[in-house]
Amino acid sequence: MGIKPYLITKSLTPENQETPINFIKGDIVNYKLFYRRNHFSYPNFLTSFYFLPIEGLVRFPKVFSLQEIRVLPSKTVKVILECAGNKRELFNPKVFGEQWGKGAISQGKWKGTPLSALLQYTGLLETAKEIVFEGYDFGERTDTNQQYHFSRSLPLEIALHPDTIIAYEYNDQPIPFKHGYPLRLIVPGWYAMASVKWIKKITVIDHEFTGPFQAIDYVYYPNRDSDIGKIPVTTINLNSTIQKPLNLQVLNTGNHTIEGIAWTGRGKVLKVEISLDGGRTWEAAKIFLSTENYSWVRWIYEWQVTEKGEYMIISKAIDSEGRMQPNEPIWNRKGYGYNAIDKIEVKVE
């Protein structure tokens, strides 16, 4: 049996661990290697008595059992979940927060019932504006010294999208407890803070939700010392990661395959370019386009190197809306949404 990769530990309380993204092959990440992002300790509740209430500005408040949800029409979507803080350690100047490398991202198949199908049973009042999802996970925030459940809202447009699902399976198995069992919201195309785990209740409201994980965290603050210009974190940015070779690896002269992934929360990745001279010139990588709407694409570039020395390898993705990865990230003081061109260095000897 070959040696297998492990999660990369960032913190233990709460548990935050990265996917070993350099060693992930294919499009499906086994749940054992799916990154773990928590704000609090894991919740404690009895799943045998689990019910999901939908309340607030609905015509018919209803409490769904797991059995009721599982017999409703289902949908399976292959979705990237990327922590908004993925690659935070690469920001310069440095920012405070969990110092994620390149592995706070994973992908797999989620099966569940579209939220819109559940809401057909409850209806929505005309005054409805947002839908709030509260998780069972809770704890004290250091900035307020108060306890909160992890809660987030979605605007109706996103919440009612047919691919926004209340998921109960991951890769054809019940969702593992550490990833949200028994029910997890899946919001394709948005950073993963939107995909609330261990859903406790769903509430429809007529105003902008101002919980701390919406109004304080997961907000881009472009200024170090003020909140001027702040905007919410929503859609995943266009991005790419070089998986092979490893950063600072020593190689022999000869033929080498450079490979990686590229992804975006809006549109499609159409092209990945590689530079081997610090960004002066670029060549197209071979890209394996996906028929899925929300999955990453894989790419490879065959590199024949005859001269010894140190090389910088750079990857840059380009999408269907004409966007390309920037040379530098948009700095923000909480370190969200890093998506600058990816760089590694290797030595050939």
Explain this structure.
The protein contains four helices and 23 strands. The longest helix is centred in the middle third of the chain and has 8 residues. The chain has two domains: about 220 residues, Oxidoreductase, molybdopterin-binding domain (Sulfite Oxidase, Chain A, domain 2), CATH 3.90.420; about 110 residues, Immunoglobulin-like, CATH 2.60.40. The strands form six sheets. Strands 4-3-12-7-8 form a five-stranded mixed β-sheet. Strands 5, 6, 9, 10 and 11 form a five-stranded antiparallel β-sheet that branches. The two termini are about 30 Å apart. It is mainly beta.
| The level-1 CATH class of the largest domain | Alpha Beta
CATH architecture of the largest domain: Alpha-Beta Complex
Radius of gyration based on Cα positions: 21 Å
The CATH topology name of the largest domain reads Sulfite Oxidase, Chain A, domain 2
Which word captures the global form?
globular
Low-confidence runs of at least 5 consecutive residues = none
Q: End-to-end distance, in Å? A: 31 Å
- Proportion in β-strands: 35-45%
As an assembly, this protein is: single chain
**Helicity range:** under 10%
Order of strands across the main sheet: 4-3-12-7-8
CATH superfamily of the largest domain: Oxidoreductase, molybdopterin-binding domain
User: Which structural category fits the helices and strands?
Assistant: mainly beta
Q: Domain count, please report it.
A: 2
Question: How do the helices and strands follow one another from N- to C-terminus?
Answer: EEEEHEEHEEHEEEEHEEEEEEEEEEE
Largest sheet report:
5 strands, mixed
- pLDDT average, as an integer? 97
Number of strands: 23
Protein name: Sulfite oxidase
Domain Moybdenum cofactor oxidoreductase dimerisation: 234-348
Keywords: Metal-binding, Molybdenum, Oxidoreductase
Pfam families: Mo-co_dimer, Oxidored_molyb
